[in-house]
Amino acid sequence: MTIPESSYGADMRPAVADAGLLEDGIRSAGLKVTVPRLAVLRALTDRPHATADALFGAVRADLPGTSLQAVYGVLASFTTAGIVRKIEPAGSPALFERRVGDNHHHIVCTRCGVVHDVDCAVGHSPCLTPVDALGFDVRAAEVIYWGLCAQCQSETALP
Amino acid sequence: MTIPESSYGADMRPAVADAGLLEDGIRSAGLKVTVPRLAVLRALTDRPHATADALFGAVRADLPGTSLQAVYGVLASFTTAGIVRKIEPAGSPALFERRVGDNHHHIVCTRCGVVHDVDCAVGHSPCLTPVDALGFDVRAAEVIYWGLCAQCQSETALP
DNA sequence: ACCGTTGTTTTGAATTACTCAAAACAAGAT
DNA sequence: ATCTTGTTTTGAGTAATTCAAAACAACGGT
C-alpha cells in the first residue's frame, strides 16, 4: 500500500524548514550534525508520516550517495534520542514523524493508508485508563483508529 | 464462547468434549474441518497470544508433517472467517488469539514481551470516537498499553 | 588549522516474517 | 464411490529490517 502524505496538524511547521533549526534540533539531542541527518530531518519535515524507504527516496534526490542503511541508522538514532517517533501500524512498514513528546495518536485509512494525527484523548476517552492493569507499570497507551478517510468514502460510494 | 487467558490451563480442559467444540467452531465459520486446522486451533487455545511460528512448533509436535505455510494458511482463513483475531504489536511478529467479537485491548511488557488482554473501561464500543475524526468513518480502535509486567518490575529493581 | 577520538556512513551480506504459485491431496456434497 | 471444491505441501520469492567491518567525518582539544 502506498501511503499518501497527510496534511499538517494545528502545530504546523513551515514546509521548508530552516537549516539552522534542523541543525539545532539534532545538536541539542546530543547527536553529531551530519549531512545525511540534516537531509533526513528535512525530508521528514515535508512528509509527516513517512517510511524509511520514502525518506530514502527523498534524500537520494539531493544526495545520491546516501545509502538506505544510513537512513535506517539516522532514524534509529533520532528515535533513540527522542526527536523522532516511530509508529508501526499493522500491515504497514514503520512510519516516522517529527511530532514527539505529546503522546498523540493516529487514524489510518484502511483503503488508501493515509495517516493523520489525532490529539491525545487522555481525560476524554475511558479507554486510556485500563480497568485492570494486571500489575503492570503502564508507561504508554498507543491508540490507532482504523476507518475510511473522507476521500475513500466518496470513492467507495461510486457505482 | 471466548475465555480469558487466565481462566484455565491446558490440563483443565476436557479433551474429548474439546475436540468437538473446536470442530464446531471451525465448521460453523463455514470452513472445512481438517486435521491441521484442529491442531492449530487447539494450540491456540493453550497459547492465547501466539505467533505463527510458536503455533507451528506446537502443531508439529503432534503432526510432524505440517508445514509452516499451512499454519499461515490456517490462521489467514480463521482470521478472515472471524474466529481468530490477529494483532500486530510494534516490534513483534503477528500474534493470534481466539478471543474475538468483543472490543478488548492489550497490554504488552516492553521487557519480556508478555501480552495480556485488557477490557475496555466502558461497555460496548466506547473506543470508536476519537476527539476529532477528521472526516473518517471510524470502524475500529486498537489500543495497546506498554509497560513493565509485575515480574519484570521486580527483576529490574534488582542490583 | 591540525589531530585524535569517537561516532557515523558505506558496503555488502544476512535475517525475519511473511507471501506466492503450482501440484498433490482431502473434505464434504451428490 | 465419485466429483467438486477447497486445503496443504513443496519450493521459491519478497519486503523490511538488521548486522558487521572498514572507510570516513564531526568536533573538542591542542
In short:
Two copies of one chain form a homodimer. Chain A is an alpha+beta fold.
Q: Which word captures the global form of chain A?
A: globular
What oligomeric state is this?
homodimer
Order of helices and strands of chain A: HHEHHEEEEEH
Classify the secondary structure makeup of chain A into a structural class: alpha+beta
Characterize the structure shown.
The structure is a homodimer of 159-residue chains. The first copy, chain A, contains five helices and six strands, in the order ααβααβββββα. With 159 residues, chain A is α+β, with helices and mostly antiparallel strands. In chain A, the strands form two sheets. In chain A, strands 1-3-2 form a three-stranded antiparallel β-sheet. Chain A is globular, with a radius of gyration of 17 Å. Residues 2-16 of chain A have low confidence and may be disordered. The A-B interface holds A 86-88, 90-91, 94, 105, 107, 109-110, 116, 118-119, 121, 124-150, 153 and B 86-88, 90-91, 94, 105, 107, 109-110, 116, 118-122, 126-150, 153. β6 (137-148) of chain A pairs antiparallel with β6 of chain B, so a sheet runs across the interface.
